[in-house]
Amino acid sequence: xxxxxxxxxxxxxxxxxxxxxxxxxxxxxxxxxxxxxxxxxxxxxxxxxxxxxxxxxxxxxxxxxxxxxxxxxxxxxxxxxxxxxxxxxxxxxxxxxxxxxxxxxxxxxxxxxxxxxxxxxxxxxxxxxxxxxxxxxxxxxxxxxxxxxxxxxxxxxxxxxxxxxxxxxxxxxxxxxxxxxxxxxxxxxxxxxxxxxxxxxxxxxxxxxxxxxxxxxxxxxxxxxxxxxxxxxxxxxxxxxxxxxxxxxxxxxxxxxxxxxxxxxxxxxxxxxxx
Length: 275
Fold this sequence. Notes:
The chain is mainly β. It is built from one helix and 15 strands, in the order αβββββββββββββββ. The strands form five sheets. The protein has a five-stranded mixed barrel with strand order 11-12-13-15-14. A three-stranded antiparallel β-sheet has the order 4-8-7, with no helix packed on it. A hairpin with a 5-residue loop joins strand 12 and strand 13 (227-232).
């Protein structure tokens, strides 16, 4: 047998065992081969876990599996760069609070997308595989025996029939969403690729006699009075009476982007109305 053919045969034999049998019950995936560590995810009954190729260092009674993602994780705003990426070496957390379990550690080149903004925390969609561990004592589901079928012969004329192709699926039209108090839409550089969204919160002035002047005159705050985004009113009509909105819950239609030189967000308002 030629060396290339032998390598292909070995590679094929290796891949046969990568897809494990379906799980018979919901199975937690731990960050380490230890049931007291962080639960990264829970695989539903019937899931076929993907076993990691290199399992030589996995303790007995455990199996290393790959969670393909995407995953929803959180990062502290102080760990987010001006380019809105999580700095390498910073932790991705499972919840937006100090001391919450670490899901993974940020690496250079991670593919992330901002999907939410909560005070001092930013929620990301992380698109990369993460390795976790499940107990190998989990019982695989027993597949049901297929029903016996009587073979039938197709007529000779059917052999020359044209192949059947699947009709393309029709994508559902997107539904506009209101971003509630304390939340923000995906943020970009303010270009045409970023679509306007609806933002809801308390409309407040940023002026304070004992504090430095803020980059914008107004802001949106949550129920606790904490700012989660500035409001840029430059696109609103000059005749708009903004005082009637101050300290009241409003809905702002506009585009979210980052404030240059900081981790703050700003909504470029196109319209403003009372909630």
